[in-house]
Amino acid sequence: MGTYIGLLIAAIRGLLTSRQDLVLENLALRHQLAMCGRRPRVRGGDRLLWVTLYRRWAGWHSALVVLKPDTIVRWHREGWRQYWRWKSRQRRGGRRRIAQEARDLITRIARENPRWGAVRIRGELLALGHDVSAASVRRYRRLALRRPPSQRWHTFVTNHRHDLWAVDFFTVPTLLFQTLYVFVVVSHDRRRIEHLNVTARPTAAWVWQQVVEATPWGRKPGVLLRDRDRCYGADFIARASRIGIETVLTPIHTPQANGVVERLIGTLRRECVDHIIPMNERHLRQVLREYVVYYNLTRPHRTLALEPPEGARIPQRIGAVAATPILGGLYHRYERKAA
User: Fold this and answer.
1) pTM score above 0.85
2) CA 202 from centroid of its chain's CA atoms
Protein backbone atom coordinates (compact mmCIF):
# COMPACT_ATOMS: atom_id res chain seq x y z
CA MET A 1 0.00 0.00 0.00
CA GLY A 2 2.81 2.41 0.85
CA THR A 3 4.50 1.68 -2.48
CA TYR A 4 1.42 2.69 -4.43
CA ILE A 5 1.07 5.88 -2.38
CA GLY A 6 4.74 6.78 -3.12
CA LEU A 7 4.28 6.20 -6.84
CA LEU A 8 1.13 8.29 -6.79
CA ILE A 9 2.88 11.16 -5.03
CA ALA A 10 5.76 10.99 -7.52
CA ALA A 11 3.29 11.04 -10.45
CA ILE A 12 1.45 14.03 -9.02
CA ARG A 13 4.76 15.79 -8.42
CA GLY A 14 5.86 15.10 -12.00
CA LEU A 15 2.60 16.61 -13.31
CA LEU A 16 2.97 19.70 -11.16
CA THR A 17 6.70 20.16 -11.91
CA SER A 18 7.68 21.89 -15.12
CA ARG A 19 9.93 20.25 -17.67
CA GLN A 20 12.69 22.78 -16.98
CA ASP A 21 12.76 21.91 -13.30
CA LEU A 22 12.98 18.21 -14.13
CA VAL A 23 15.92 18.82 -16.46
CA LEU A 24 17.73 20.92 -13.84
CA GLU A 25 17.03 18.36 -11.11
CA ASN A 26 18.30 15.56 -13.33
CA LEU A 27 21.42 17.61 -14.11
CA ALA A 28 22.05 18.32 -10.43
CA LEU A 29 21.67 14.69 -9.38
CA ARG A 30 23.86 13.35 -12.21
CA HIS A 31 26.51 15.94 -11.42
CA GLN A 32 26.59 14.89 -7.77
CA LEU A 33 26.97 11.24 -8.80
CA ALA A 34 29.92 12.22 -10.98
CA MET A 35 31.45 14.14 -8.05
CA CYS A 36 31.32 11.05 -5.84
CA GLY A 37 33.36 9.03 -8.32
CA ARG A 38 36.43 11.30 -8.64
CA ARG A 39 39.11 13.03 -6.58
CA PRO A 40 39.12 15.82 -5.67
CA ARG A 41 35.38 15.93 -5.46
CA VAL A 42 34.93 19.71 -5.67
CA ARG A 43 36.53 21.73 -8.47
CA GLY A 44 36.16 25.20 -9.88
CA GLY A 45 33.65 24.07 -12.49
CA ASP A 46 31.50 22.46 -9.78
CA ARG A 47 31.34 25.73 -7.87
CA LEU A 48 30.40 27.63 -11.01
CA LEU A 49 27.59 25.16 -11.84
CA TRP A 50 26.04 25.23 -8.38
CA VAL A 51 26.28 29.00 -8.10
CA THR A 52 24.47 29.25 -11.44
CA LEU A 53 21.77 26.84 -10.26
CA TYR A 54 21.44 28.83 -7.06
CA ARG A 55 20.86 31.99 -9.09
CA ARG A 56 18.56 30.52 -11.79
CA TRP A 57 16.62 27.67 -10.13
CA ALA A 58 14.34 28.13 -7.15
CA GLY A 59 14.32 24.45 -6.22
CA TRP A 60 18.07 23.98 -6.16
CA HIS A 61 18.16 23.00 -2.49
CA SER A 62 15.80 20.02 -3.04
CA ALA A 63 18.38 18.27 -5.23
CA LEU A 64 21.27 18.59 -2.81
CA VAL A 65 22.64 15.25 -1.61
CA VAL A 66 26.45 15.59 -1.42
CA LEU A 67 26.70 19.31 -0.72
CA LYS A 68 25.07 21.54 1.88
CA PRO A 69 23.06 24.69 1.14
CA ASP A 70 25.42 26.82 3.22
CA THR A 71 28.31 25.71 1.03
CA ILE A 72 26.55 26.89 -2.13
CA VAL A 73 25.72 30.26 -0.52
CA ARG A 74 29.34 30.71 0.57
CA TRP A 75 30.56 29.95 -2.96
CA HIS A 76 28.16 32.50 -4.35
CA ARG A 77 29.34 35.23 -2.01
CA GLU A 78 32.98 34.47 -2.78
CA GLY A 79 32.26 34.61 -6.50
CA TRP A 80 30.48 37.93 -5.98
CA ARG A 81 33.55 39.39 -4.27
CA GLN A 82 35.87 38.06 -6.98
CA TYR A 83 33.62 39.52 -9.69
CA TRP A 84 33.61 43.01 -8.23
CA ARG A 85 37.35 42.86 -7.55
CA TRP A 86 37.91 42.02 -11.22
CA LYS A 87 35.48 44.70 -12.33
CA SER A 88 37.17 47.35 -10.16
CA ARG A 89 40.57 46.52 -11.64
CA GLN A 90 39.26 46.87 -15.16
CA ARG A 91 38.05 50.41 -14.58
CA ARG A 92 40.74 52.47 -12.93
CA GLY A 93 39.63 55.78 -11.59
CA GLY A 94 41.57 58.97 -10.97
CA ARG A 95 43.78 60.95 -13.26
CA ARG A 96 45.58 59.44 -16.21
CA ARG A 97 49.01 58.03 -15.41
CA ILE A 98 51.95 59.98 -16.74
CA ALA A 99 54.30 58.48 -19.32
CA GLN A 100 56.87 55.91 -18.24
CA GLU A 101 59.72 58.11 -19.48
CA ALA A 102 58.55 60.98 -17.28
CA ARG A 103 58.30 58.67 -14.24
CA ASP A 104 61.81 57.39 -14.87
CA LEU A 105 63.13 60.94 -15.18
CA ILE A 106 61.48 61.96 -11.90
CA THR A 107 63.07 58.98 -10.14
CA ARG A 108 66.48 59.66 -11.68
CA ILE A 109 66.50 63.40 -10.98
CA ALA A 110 65.26 62.89 -7.40
CA ARG A 111 67.99 60.35 -6.63
CA GLU A 112 70.77 62.34 -8.26
CA ASN A 113 69.61 65.58 -6.58
CA PRO A 114 68.07 64.54 -3.24
CA ARG A 115 67.79 68.13 -2.02
CA TRP A 116 65.64 69.30 -4.93
CA GLY A 117 61.95 69.85 -4.32
CA ALA A 118 59.00 68.96 -6.53
CA VAL A 119 58.82 72.39 -8.15
CA ARG A 120 62.51 72.36 -9.08
CA ILE A 121 62.18 68.89 -10.60
CA ARG A 122 59.05 69.97 -12.49
CA GLY A 123 61.01 72.84 -14.00
CA GLU A 124 63.63 70.41 -15.28
CA LEU A 125 60.91 68.19 -16.73
CA LEU A 126 59.32 71.14 -18.56
CA ALA A 127 62.70 71.88 -20.13
CA LEU A 128 62.87 68.23 -21.24
CA GLY A 129 59.41 68.31 -22.83
CA HIS A 130 57.30 66.72 -20.07
CA ASP A 131 54.41 68.78 -18.69
CA VAL A 132 53.82 67.07 -15.35
CA SER A 133 52.00 68.55 -12.36
CA ALA A 134 53.82 69.20 -9.10
CA ALA A 135 51.51 66.71 -7.32
CA SER A 136 52.62 63.90 -9.63
CA VAL A 137 56.25 64.87 -9.11
CA ARG A 138 55.79 64.76 -5.33
CA ARG A 139 54.22 61.30 -5.51
CA TYR A 140 56.98 59.71 -7.59
CA ARG A 141 59.72 61.67 -5.80
CA ARG A 142 58.48 60.27 -2.49
CA LEU A 143 58.73 56.74 -3.89
CA ALA A 144 62.27 57.40 -5.14
CA LEU A 145 63.52 58.88 -1.84
CA ARG A 146 62.59 56.40 0.86
CA ARG A 147 65.17 57.82 3.27
CA PRO A 148 66.14 61.41 4.25
CA PRO A 149 68.28 63.13 1.60
CA SER A 150 72.00 62.91 2.29
CA GLN A 151 75.09 63.04 0.16
CA ARG A 152 76.87 59.76 -0.49
CA TRP A 153 80.51 59.12 0.34
CA HIS A 154 81.34 59.28 -3.36
CA THR A 155 79.85 62.79 -3.53
CA PHE A 156 81.76 63.89 -0.42
CA VAL A 157 85.08 62.53 -1.72
CA THR A 158 84.55 64.07 -5.18
CA ASN A 159 83.80 67.51 -3.74
CA HIS A 160 86.87 67.43 -1.46
CA ARG A 161 89.41 65.43 -3.46
CA HIS A 162 91.55 68.49 -4.31
CA ASP A 163 92.02 69.13 -0.60
CA LEU A 164 91.61 65.64 0.82
CA TRP A 165 94.25 63.26 2.17
CA ALA A 166 93.68 59.78 3.53
CA VAL A 167 95.74 57.76 6.01
CA ASP A 168 95.73 54.14 7.11
CA PHE A 169 97.86 51.28 8.44
CA PHE A 170 98.65 47.85 7.08
CA THR A 171 100.84 45.08 8.51
CA VAL A 172 103.80 43.17 7.07
CA PRO A 173 105.45 40.11 8.72
CA THR A 174 109.25 39.91 8.83
CA LEU A 175 111.54 36.93 8.36
CA LEU A 176 111.33 36.11 12.08
CA PHE A 177 107.52 36.63 12.14
CA GLN A 178 107.63 40.04 13.74
CA THR A 179 104.67 42.25 12.80
CA LEU A 180 105.59 45.64 11.34
CA TYR A 181 103.07 48.44 10.84
CA VAL A 182 103.23 50.59 7.71
CA PHE A 183 101.65 54.05 7.91
CA VAL A 184 100.76 55.56 4.54
CA VAL A 185 99.42 58.98 3.56
CA VAL A 186 97.91 59.52 0.10
CA SER A 187 96.32 62.55 -1.55
CA HIS A 188 93.03 62.03 -3.38
CA ASP A 189 93.72 64.59 -6.10
CA ARG A 190 96.57 62.80 -7.93
CA ARG A 191 96.76 59.59 -5.87
CA ARG A 192 100.24 60.65 -4.79
CA ILE A 193 101.89 58.97 -1.80
CA GLU A 194 102.66 61.95 0.43
CA HIS A 195 104.36 60.04 3.22
CA LEU A 196 105.18 56.48 4.28
CA ASN A 197 106.95 55.06 7.30
CA VAL A 198 107.36 51.79 9.22
CA THR A 199 107.30 50.99 12.93
CA ALA A 200 106.93 48.01 15.22
CA ARG A 201 104.99 49.97 17.88
CA PRO A 202 102.50 52.52 16.48
CA THR A 203 101.84 54.86 19.38
CA ALA A 204 99.83 58.07 19.29
CA ALA A 205 103.00 60.18 19.55
CA TRP A 206 104.60 58.30 16.64
CA VAL A 207 101.48 58.74 14.48
CA TRP A 208 101.39 62.47 15.15
CA GLN A 209 105.07 62.76 14.29
CA GLN A 210 104.28 61.18 10.89
CA VAL A 211 101.57 63.78 10.30
CA VAL A 212 104.09 66.53 11.10
CA GLU A 213 106.63 65.03 8.69
CA ALA A 214 103.99 64.69 5.95
CA THR A 215 103.07 68.39 6.18
CA PRO A 216 106.33 70.39 5.93
CA TRP A 217 106.47 74.13 5.20
CA GLY A 218 102.75 74.58 5.78
CA ARG A 219 101.69 72.14 3.03
CA LYS A 220 98.73 70.31 4.50
CA PRO A 221 95.28 69.01 3.54
CA GLY A 222 92.02 70.68 4.43
CA VAL A 223 90.38 67.36 5.26
CA LEU A 224 92.04 64.20 6.58
CA LEU A 225 90.10 60.96 6.14
CA ARG A 226 90.90 58.08 8.49
CA ASP A 227 89.33 55.15 10.32
CA ARG A 228 88.64 54.83 14.05
CA ASP A 229 91.83 53.01 15.06
CA ARG A 230 92.79 53.78 18.68
CA CYS A 231 96.47 54.19 17.84
CA TYR A 232 95.74 57.73 16.60
CA GLY A 233 95.06 58.85 20.16
CA ALA A 234 92.09 60.52 21.79
CA ASP A 235 93.38 64.06 21.12
CA PHE A 236 94.25 63.55 17.43
CA ILE A 237 91.20 65.43 16.11
CA ALA A 238 91.79 68.42 18.42
CA ARG A 239 95.49 68.64 17.55
CA ALA A 240 94.76 68.42 13.84
CA SER A 241 92.12 71.12 14.14
CA ARG A 242 94.62 73.50 15.75
CA ILE A 243 96.81 73.38 12.63
CA GLY A 244 93.85 73.76 10.25
CA ILE A 245 93.13 70.13 9.37
CA GLU A 246 89.57 68.81 9.64
CA THR A 247 89.41 65.10 10.51
CA VAL A 248 86.63 62.94 9.06
CA LEU A 249 86.13 59.46 10.53
CA THR A 250 84.80 56.68 8.35
CA PRO A 251 81.84 54.59 9.61
CA ILE A 252 82.56 51.41 11.53
CA HIS A 253 83.42 48.35 9.42
CA THR A 254 83.20 50.26 6.12
CA PRO A 255 86.61 50.20 4.43
CA GLN A 256 84.94 51.23 1.15
CA ALA A 257 84.43 54.69 2.67
CA ASN A 258 88.22 55.11 2.54
CA GLY A 259 88.57 53.39 -0.81
CA VAL A 260 91.53 55.35 -2.23
CA VAL A 261 93.95 54.43 0.52
CA GLU A 262 92.57 50.88 0.66
CA ARG A 263 93.25 50.54 -3.07
CA LEU A 264 96.75 51.92 -2.55
CA ILE A 265 97.42 49.39 0.22
CA GLY A 266 96.31 46.64 -2.13
CA THR A 267 98.73 47.95 -4.77
CA LEU A 268 101.58 48.07 -2.27
CA ARG A 269 100.89 44.48 -1.30
CA ARG A 270 100.47 43.07 -4.81
CA GLU A 271 103.36 44.95 -6.40
CA CYS A 272 105.87 45.18 -3.57
CA VAL A 273 105.62 43.50 -0.16
CA ASP A 274 104.13 40.24 -1.50
CA HIS A 275 107.36 39.68 -3.46
CA ILE A 276 109.86 40.24 -0.64
CA ILE A 277 110.61 38.94 2.85
CA PRO A 278 111.74 41.92 4.94
CA MET A 279 114.58 41.21 7.31
CA ASN A 280 113.73 43.96 9.75
CA GLU A 281 112.17 47.40 10.05
CA ARG A 282 115.02 49.20 8.27
CA HIS A 283 114.96 46.78 5.33
CA LEU A 284 111.20 47.17 4.81
CA ARG A 285 111.44 50.97 5.04
CA GLN A 286 114.17 51.03 2.41
CA VAL A 287 112.22 48.80 -0.01
CA LEU A 288 108.99 50.74 0.39
CA ARG A 289 110.67 54.13 -0.10
CA GLU A 290 112.25 52.91 -3.33
CA TYR A 291 108.87 51.70 -4.51
CA VAL A 292 107.24 55.03 -3.55
CA VAL A 293 109.66 56.88 -5.87
CA TYR A 294 108.74 54.49 -8.69
CA TYR A 295 105.03 54.83 -7.85
CA ASN A 296 104.99 58.64 -7.85
CA LEU A 297 107.32 59.28 -10.80
CA THR A 298 106.93 56.37 -13.21
CA ARG A 299 104.02 54.02 -12.60
CA PRO A 300 101.02 54.86 -14.88
CA HIS A 301 97.58 55.16 -13.28
CA ARG A 302 94.36 54.34 -15.06
CA THR A 303 92.44 57.01 -13.11
CA LEU A 304 95.01 59.62 -14.28
CA ALA A 305 94.83 58.75 -17.99
CA LEU A 306 97.92 56.49 -17.65
CA GLU A 307 100.02 59.28 -16.16
CA PRO A 308 102.07 59.01 -12.93
CA PRO A 309 100.95 61.08 -9.90
CA GLU A 310 103.81 63.57 -10.25
CA GLY A 311 102.69 64.53 -13.76
CA ALA A 312 102.96 63.40 -17.37
CA ARG A 313 106.29 62.22 -18.68
CA ILE A 314 107.59 64.04 -21.74
CA PRO A 315 107.52 61.72 -24.81
CA GLN A 316 110.96 61.02 -26.30
CA ARG A 317 111.36 59.73 -29.84
CA ILE A 318 115.11 59.97 -30.39
CA GLY A 319 117.80 57.75 -28.90
CA ALA A 320 118.17 54.17 -27.75
CA VAL A 321 115.80 52.79 -25.15
CA ALA A 322 117.49 51.97 -21.85
CA ALA A 323 115.95 50.16 -18.88
CA THR A 324 116.63 51.13 -15.28
CA PRO A 325 115.92 48.29 -12.82
CA ILE A 326 113.80 49.04 -9.78
CA LEU A 327 113.72 46.84 -6.65
CA GLY A 328 116.44 44.60 -8.03
CA GLY A 329 114.73 44.15 -11.40
CA LEU A 330 111.19 43.55 -10.11
CA TYR A 331 110.19 46.55 -12.25
CA HIS A 332 111.97 48.70 -14.82
CA ARG A 333 111.88 52.32 -15.88
CA TYR A 334 112.35 52.89 -19.62
CA GLU A 335 113.92 56.04 -21.08
CA ARG A 336 115.65 57.06 -24.29
CA LYS A 337 119.33 57.90 -23.83
CA ALA A 338 120.91 60.68 -25.83
CA ALA A 339 123.25 59.44 -28.59
Assistant:
1) no
2) 36
